[in-house]
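User: Show me sequence and structure for the first protein, then do the same for the second.

Assistant: Starting with the first protein.
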Amino acid sequence: MSESEELPDPVVGVSCVAQRNGIVSPASRRVPEEMAVAFTFNGSTHAVMMATPADLEDFAVGFALTEGLIESRSEIDSLEVVNLELGVEIRAWLKEERAKAYAQRRRSMAGPTGCGLCGIESLEAAMRQTPKVSANWQFAPQAVIAAMASLDPAQRLNAETHAVHGAGFWTEREGLVALREDVGRHNALDKLLGALVRGGRTASDGFVLTTSRVSIELIQKAARLSAPVLVAVSAPTAAAIRLADECGMTLIAVARRQDFEVFTHPQRLRETARHVA
């Protein structure tokens, strides 16, 4: 795989006029770059996303996996990131058997859809079966607090811009294993999962962390990599709670400083045994 060396910087400086302490004056700010990123598989454009131009190979692998276009990293034969005048094109070539399956899917597609459920051709496909996740290990409340505390110091782009989401993977043994950032919360998670897959691991032995709210798509994506625990800064939707419960995932949200709320499968949290009937 190769990535273009001419991709734009993911963070740029801009001028502005700011009012601070009652005084209006010229100022500057660092903001995240956002550009069109087109995914092509075997020469056919599948989706175009607006994303931060960083970690795009991770993005491609994670996107293909969580959208069900591949079952494993080995099904991608080659991958190239090409910088074009209007944006970036990620060109993936699938191995023969997977390419046949993808071609069949293309023939049945009714048309493009919006962000989050890209390339989905029906309500049935959008609400596709989510893999069951299982993990018998338990964790203490302090593990959740420590995991979320590890995110902020590692978010380089957000430190500069205060405008991007982060997705991380944390284990009690290793701490923060990986973190990826993007203007889109789905994109950040896809990049994280792609990084894990490219590193030859799943998310089965730790926590997937996100700085966003939790919608159903995030549960679907995390479950594809066998994540037993997802922890988020903001609240989940009702649909996300239902799906997390159904697939066996412990969903923890509103995780801020020392506090958090466990919405599904609280048995993995050690202290719940004596507090939850």
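Switching to the second protein now.
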Amino acid sequence: METKASIVNNWLPRYTGTPLEEFGDYILLTNFDDYVRRFANRFNAQIRGLDRPMQTCTNQDGLTIINFGIGSPNAATIMDLLSGVQPKGVLFLGKCGGIKRSTEIGHFILPTAAIRGEGTSDDYFPPQVPALPSFKLHKFVSEKIVESGMEYRTGVVYTTNRRVWEHDISFKRKLRQLRVLAIDMETATVFMVGLMNNIARGALLLVSDKPMTPEGVKTEKSDKIISDSFVDIHIDIGIKAMSEIGSKGEQIKHFHF
């Protein structure tokens, strides 16, 4: 266990209950076991790791979904562990809070960048390095969103490690000054640790609440409404994008001259 490869090759199965050879070339990431259950039901596939920190499911076409938990440290962990199987592409299906008034619940956000407010990514790169997705992966995902007929926006999201901030007036003032579209807890970390591990990565975020006002803060009731209305199409876009990009999309990696 002296090298990173030896560690991640041991820990990825330990965290997920899934052998290395059962991970697909393309990966969907999520924070929610409900996403994994819906994916499994759609393909009549087995969920692994029910007794582990992370659950996985792989369909017959070799697409894998992983519930890695909540927060940027967990996002960093899974993106490090995935270096053991070197997937060709990873798409994070997350939820976010809309910051701008024009960012409506049920809309999708395809982030052009993420502000690194979480701190976790500072262990990987200096703060001057921007958190960016892989362009060609996002380009293909955008085509799938358009085909689905759903609304989406592009722009910058703010990633924070802080879970309870909705009461903090000064923090909300800061978010307005940054002119971000939305806030979440994982996107910047997925982008940065993906960059560190040479993994093509992206994020498709579902606006699930509007936390800048007291009545817009997410509750169990409101989250259930969002899940019932939009989660299936969220998963569907992710499945189509990551199932088809290998055959229909542009080569994600740039050519070397």
